[in-house]
Amino acid sequence: MTQITNHLPTKELQALDAAHHMHPFTEGAALARKGARIITRAKGVYLTDSEGHQILDGMAGLWCVNVGYGRKDLAEVAARQIEELCYYNTFFQTSHVPAIALAAEIAKLAPGDLNHVFYAGSGSEANDTNIRLVRRYWDVKGKPEKKVIISRKNGYHGSTMGGASLGGMSPMHAQGGLPIPDIVHIGQPHWWAEGGDMTPEEFGLMRARELEAKIEELGADRVAAFIGEPIQGAGGVIVPPATYWPEIQRICDKYGILLIADEVITGFGRTGNWFGSQTMGIRPHIMTIAKGLSSGYAPIGGSVICDEVHETIAGSGDDFNHGYTYSGHPVAAAVALKNLELIQEENILHHVKKVAHPYLMERWQALADHPLVGEAKLVGLMGSIALTPDKATRAKFASEAGTVGLRCRERCFANNLVMRHVGDRMIISPPLVITPSEIDVLIERATKSLDECYAGLKSDGLLVAA
Length: 466
Ligand SMILES: *Cc1c(COP(=O)(O)O)cnc(C)c1O
Description:
2 domains; Aspartate Aminotransferase, domain 1; alpha/beta; Aspartate Aminotransferase, domain 2; binds pyridoxal-5'-phosphate
């Protein structure tokens, strides 16, 4: 048997990885030629790789390690739960303490009457659940023709057939025959890229009204729900204009359409409040949760459901024929519960709001003075900068979209900073516990990377507008 060890030379690990491990969202052959970067340990906001580099993780893994890496409390809770009750299901009229306690805690933290939790193993699964939930809800209400779910282009809702269909990522739809039937997409509120000569406020209203037009086109009697991320994450940390969400809310209310807020990234403190819906002033019927729920220490997600939707389905006189082996997995639930406890005990929301956000905001916005940067956005601790050859006109580069972003990301990697690129936009989502001095390191490495990227573009003649 192959020993799993951190002491194999990097080259050998890379060769085994290339031979046997197929990576998500990756061109396998290109990675095999280059060799994966191998992360061996992590503590706080820093990763260590197999070559001993200390890398500041500006993405908290994949937007999830909100309390930072290497928490002993969470390790101990997991170990204890494995000994006490490693697994039991919640299908056949049984329950267990971690699933119960976590659901009660989520209900306490969630706004309004979002009082019921259906567990999944991930955000994608939870969004698949949401498709089942909203269609079942309208069935029970005697309106089985209300099936269509309206979503946004460039939204991200996961990678299962359902999740990727709800999402509006064209490279994902292009593979595997997506979207599945009865999911339709409207435009995104991405003013920087698509706003033309409109003000952000005008553009926000215009994009929200695409929902109304789509409902009118299909007929409200066919539309089950609208789903959106309060702030698009994987799409490039796109903060909608202030006019957008109030108008979406008005339209959902007017036509009796269920509103699903996908809070997988924005939940549990990322925007400075418990949920992005609170930050953006939305009243969803269902929220999708995952990622920060356990700070990524264990895989768990779920749907948080309002009283009316829950009572309708629970009182239908029939089973809800849906569930996962690992719905409410006791180890994951115990870890998530402890994670929520840490966020409260350590006042992490207060830290985000009063310390980390204001400090990072000042330094992040100053990046907009860099010759390569157009706008710099930051809500709570999720931020983005738009790279552009000409800020005045918000121009795109002449090179294929993503060329410049990828070059910038590679400079960041070389400078021991994880900052991701989405097209030619750079994004961050650091652990919520990041301190001002760690923010200084982040900004210093980001600035150095932008400088190097800019110099490289200049010398390669790529500083050209489309
Ligand atoms: C990551 C993400 C998902 C998918 O979650 P997984 O745990 O990767 O399945 C869904 N929605 C949003 C908004 C996400 O960012």
